[in-house]
Amino acid sequence: MSRPDRGRSALWVSTATTTRGGVASFVRVMQTTPLWTGWHIRHIATHRDGSMATKIGAFLRAWAQLLSGFLWHRPDLVHIHMASYGSFYRKCSVVAFARLMRIPIVLHIHGSEFHSFHARSPRLTRIAIRASLECADVVIALGETWRLRLTEIAPKADVIVVANATHMHEPVSQPPAGSPVEVLFLGRIGNRKGTFELIDAWAGIGPEPHEAHLTIAGDGEVDRARELVDSSGAADTVSVRGWMNADETRAVLSRSQIFVLPSHNEGQPMAILEAMAHGLCVIATDTGGIADLLDGGDAGVLLPVGDLPALERALERAITDADDRAAVAGRGFRRASDEFDAVKVSGRLDEIYRKVIR
């Protein structure tokens, strides 16, 4: 990626990098790329995890930084990361102020429920959503599915696709048939991610004919998941853990062979990208941008949402058919390297920035 002219700068506005979720993960990844230093990017966090007082304080501090950044350290562009609900309300004011200051805007839409949020919002909020999208110089969607949804909301918006990004790792080893296999779920534990259906499916395939262990890790309804595991009779082969930090996540990915995410609603999950980048065989549902990640099912196993028998069959085949598991994992790893490598994605953003400020 070529470097921009000396002195050019960009301002990123998003949640704090210490928060949980895909936006923070994406920002952390991009902070390690040539884009961050090449464009002298400054980051302002409008949101932090914590109490209501913590969140209000973060938003007020962010606006003090924004005023300073826009008025006294004017950037060449502002890159705003927006999702649904509270994130939209926080960021739409930033979009409006950047437009008032005539600073070019790159608006990056995250979140699995943005289209539903728009559909359920009052008329004035829908108008504000459309206006925010259409006044941006470029709107970034996480995949073709999301590009179409955003274009339907805001027909005049210039919506382009830029995938999420990940760092590539040494691919995990895929053991031969008959060897123990580690299966992993990462994400917010609850109905939306399909966690409880996964527990039911795991209990349904039973202890034979495999030796496999399932790890469920994340925040959310952790206690409920543990209760369901106990009541299902699968406690000997399932571990339920709470939220893990980045180092713990990398460690558990490097010990696993299969990644499963039977979600009901998604944007473009960073957890799937990380699994592909570690060489895991991915099993996931066809919702949101997942099909785009898995190349329509070529780079992973793609299932209908809520189809418990299909989930059981996919798990059992991935566990027992070592050759098929390794082949799917290999295709996923190559796709991650070709399409989602962080340096390549940063180069795509560099091209967009140059076009926007031209």
Q: Please name the CATH topology of the largest domain.
A: Rossmann fold
Low-confidence stretches: none
Tertiary shape:
globular
Radius of gyration equals 21 Å
Protein name: Glycosyltransferase family 4 protein
Keywords: Glycosyltransferase, Transferase
Organism: Gordonia tangerina
Domain Glycosyltransferase subfamily 4-like N-terminal: 57-164
Explain briefly what this protein structure is.
The chain is an alpha/beta fold and 358 residues long. It contains 15 helices and 12 strands.
What does it look like?
The protein has 358 residues and is α/β, with parallel strands linked by helices. The protein folds into 2 domains: 10-165 and 341-357, Glycogen Phosphorylase B (Rossmann fold, 3-Layer(aba) Sandwich); 181-339, 3-Layer(aba) Sandwich (Rossmann fold), CATH 3.40.50. It is 47% helix and 16% strand. The protein is built from 15 helices and 12 strands. The chain has helices at residues 22-30, 34-38, 52-71, 86-100, 114-120, 123-135, 144-153, 195-205, 222-232, 246-254, 270-277, 290-293, 308-320, 322-340, 342-357; strands at residues 10-15, 42-47, 77-82, 105-109, 138-141, 159-161, 181-186, 212-217, 238-241, 258-261, 281-285, 301-303. The strands form 2 sheets. A 6-stranded parallel β-sheet has the order 2-1-3-4-5-6, with helices on both faces. Strands 9-8-7-10-11-12 form a 6-stranded parallel β-sheet, sandwiched between helices.
